[in-house]
TrEMBL record:
CDD domains (alphabetical): NAT_SF
Pfam families reported for this sequence: Acetyltransf_1
InterPro entries xref list: Acyl_CoA_acyltransferase, GNAT_dom
Organism domain of life: Bacteria
Taxonomic path: Bacteria, Bacillati, Actinomycetota, Actinomycetes, Catenulisporales
Name of this protein: GNAT family N-acetyltransferase
Alphabetical keyword list: Acyltransferase, Transferase
Coiled coil stretches, renumbered: none
Positions of the N-acetyltransferase domain: 6-171
Length: 171
């Protein structure tokens, strides 16, 4: 069992290397829920770690981490780009703590909103975020950068797996 798994804190640089594998393990839950369809492949590990190093913030829970959240800045808002919790550690409130940690980080850093993209009908995606105060945005409400991310998701094939939705929580 990871220590302090409910405590959300910034990732240490040396922890970034383990996070792509954590993401892959967590995504197995999505793959199982979506009926075994595969998700678009993750970038190669070294590339994925370099990409994490460019995030506005990477928050983790646990030591070693059992969950992480990656935050980017999109259109002047904090954008929760990735949220992953190891299957062995789910349903203990860690995902909730990470989302709350992201919102706290965003508020402390002067952002007015947190945005994200997720599967509309997966119970641990849009309904989970809705319980944490996120509201669905329709296409007309999407900023140009968010609309570009949605188009990229379509190009990657994500929408073929299930309807996707953009969500926002005002802070
Ligand atoms: C989404 C995710 C981070 C949630 O992590 P978590 O630590 O389980 O989150 P919490 O324990 O705070 O709450 C999870 C809630 O999601 C719902 N949920 C989770 N798994 C579920 C399932 N298999 N069936 C139905 N509801 C489920 C429940 O409402 C649950 O709360 P509950 O246990 O109190 O009923 C984790 O499931 C994960 O990594 N999933 C794979 C990757 C993913 O989908 N990321 C988000 C993409 S935007």
């Amino acid at each position: 069992m990871s220590e302090d798994e409910g405590v959300v804190r910034p990732a240490r640089t040396e922890e970034l290397a383990g996070l792509p594998a954590l993401e892959l393990a967590a995504d197995a839950q999505l793959v199982a829920y979506l009926g075994g369809a595969s998700l678009p492949p993750l970038p190669e590990s070294a590339q994925a770690v370099a990409s994490l190093a460019e995030a506005a913030a990477v928050l983790v829970a646990g030591s070693p981490p059992v969950g992480f959240a990656r935050i980017d800045v999109i259109d002047g808002n904090a954008h929760l780009e990735q949220l992953s919790v190891l299957p062995s550690a789910t349903r203990r409130g860690i995902g909730t703590a990470l989302v709350r940690g992201c919102c706290d980080w965003a508020a402390r850093n002067g952002f007015k909103a947190v945005t994200l993209m997720t599967f509309a009908h997966v119970p641990f995606n849009a309904p989970f975020y809705a319980r944490l105060g996120f509201q669905a945005l329709d296409d007309a409400q999407l900023s140009v950068p968010l609309a570009a991310i949605r188009r990229h998701e379509v190009d990657l094939g994500l929408d073929a797996l299930g309807p996707r939705v953009a969500m926002r929580r005002m802070l």
